[in-house]
Specification:
Shape: globular
Helix content: 25-40%
Oligomer: single chain
Number of domains: 2
Structural class: alpha/beta
Radius of gyration: 23 Å
CATH superfamily of the largest domain: ANL, N-terminal domain
Length: about 450
């Protein structure tokens, strides 16, 4: 019976009405949401067990019988991982022919490819519209987005959300902030949907040249520190909200509400878990897609560390659970103004340079509103100042040649890149017992600096 409830509610009560869907989110009892999720979860297990080569092989190898599984915990230690998506042919995950596809951005030599039907993209956009409606978006609003549309899903998902609301929308795309500012100001857009790091550069410009009335700003792609958010809100005299998602979830896992205290989860399309939580409840977020028929994912490890939030927020989406802001990654992949970065990027850049020793480390810091990527490298021998300048110029030239996309983002002001040359042996210390500490290649040092006052670091 319950496997028919979502369809019945859609046809008999909800229709394609965003206000009705929002009212349901306010009034639906938690037990009903969980029963619907359970029915959809079991259907998904049966679908992938029959139609997906990857899941069929894995279930057989682990003696998993989908018809006996009632909840995610019944799958034990089975998960789907990023490594699975990269190592296996994407066709192994498909249950039906796809109509739309997107790629994750380059943190490894091979990007992940995720496929959908047009209906699935439309439906995810519709659920996203509920979150935007909860923030105050209405048909009379005028929206501009500054997303990069190349192989990325965020702009397409947003387009479907805005179509569902029925408001005016223009695609600004990822222009230079100065050109974007010049071209959009006369349109009187009152809602901006933007990349988080790009927003910092736009706000610096707006602080110097002036702002226009804005209802709210929605940012995505990475975390924003509360100090930076407070500065952006002060400059624009509006609220800044954040959305959370990955390409694997079509970028629509969760969105903040007016309380700005965590992300309400899209539980109509996903079942979420926190695995291996610590005493404070922080663990890795894992999700199973519930409504996707093209490329379903079962217990996909997001690699994002967060926790469920139990205290009520009072908004219309209160029946949908919330997670805290992402605290970090489960490995050395870091989301920042440069993009999603990992050791692979820097290994390819630094290792061929003869003057550098083997040890290096990349730290993401945030002394002001913009992320700083500090590349700490050891030189093989002590170099005089002129030689260091030549080495720095060589490294920057290699960086531009290897990664024109990242280099363009740097020139657009989305992050700063700093090279820090250190004596050989500095990065890897020695314990008293003589054992060498493991050197983390990419570290996120922004959390420790998050409490520092922002104003002193802002550009004059």
């Amino acid at each position: 019976m319950f496997d028919r409830v979502p369809t019945l509610m859609e046809r008999l009560f909800l229709g394609r009405s965003i206000p009705r869907r929002t009212a349901l989110a306010r009034r639906a009892p938690r037990w009903l949401v969980e029963r619907i999720q359970s029915a959809e979860f079991q259907q998904t297990l049966r679908r992938v067990g029959t139609s997906s080569r990857f899941y069929r092989e894995r279930f057989t190898a682990l003696d998993i019988h989908p018809e006996r599984v009632r909840r995610p915990a019944d799958l034990g230690d089975f998960f789907t991982t990023s490594a699975d998506l990269r190592s296996r042919d994407t066709a192994d995950f498909l249950c039906a022919p796809p109509q739309a596809g997107f790629e994750t951005t380059g943190t490894t030599a091979k990007n992940k490819r995720i496929y959908f039907s047009n209906e699935e993209v439309h439906d995810i956009g519709f659920e996203g519209a509920v979150g935007l409606w909860n923030l105050g978006l209405r048909p009379g609003d005028r929206v501009v987005d500054a997303f990069d549309y190349a192989f990325w899903n965020a702009g397409i998902t947003l387009m479907h959300s805005l179509n569902a609301v029925g408001c005016f929308h223009m695609i600004g795309s990822k222009l230079e902030p100065a050109e974007f500012y010049r071209r959009v100001r006369d349109y009187e857009f009152n809602v901006l949907v933007v990349d988080t790091a790009w927003l910092v550069s736009l706000t610096e410009l707006a602080e110097r040249c002036g702002v226009w009335p804005v209802k709210f700003i929605l940012s995505g792609s990475e975390n924003m520190s509360e100090a930076t958010r407070a500065w952006v809100e002060r400059v624009w005299n509006t609220k800044v909200y954040q959305a959370y998602g990955q390409t694997e979830s079509l970028g629509a896992s969760g969105i903040e509400c007016p309380a700005q205290k965590g992300y309400h989860l899209n539980e109509m399309n996903f079942m979420f878990e926190i695995v291996n939580p610590n005493p404070e409840g922080y663990g890795e977020l894992v999700f199973t897609t519930l409504t996707r028929k093209i490329m379903p994912l079962v217990r996909y490890r997001s690699n994002d560390i967060t926790r469920f939030l139990d205290e009520p927020c009072g908004c219309a989406l209160q029946s949908m659970r919330r997670i805290d802001k992402i605290q970090g990654r489960g490995d050395e992949i870091v989301s920042c103004g440069m993009g999603m970065i990992s050791p692979w990027i820097f290994e390819a850049w630094l290792s061929p340079v003869a003057a550098l020793a083997d040890e290096w480390q990349v730290a993401v810091t945030q002394p002001g509103p913009r992320d700083v990527i500090e590349v700490r490298v050891e030189s093989r021998e002590e170099l005089a100042t002129p030689a260091l300048r030549d080495l720095e110029a060589e490294l920057l030239a290699r960086y531009e040649q290897l990664y024109p996309y990242y280099f363009k983002n740097m020139n657009m002001g989305m992050y700063d890149l700093r090279l820090r040359f250190l004596p050989r042996g500095t990065l890897r210390g020695i314990h008293a017992g003589g054992t060498r500490r493991k050197l983390r290649r990419v570290v996120d040092e922004r959390i420790a600096a998050a409490a520092r006052p922002l104003e002193a670091a802002l550009p004059r």
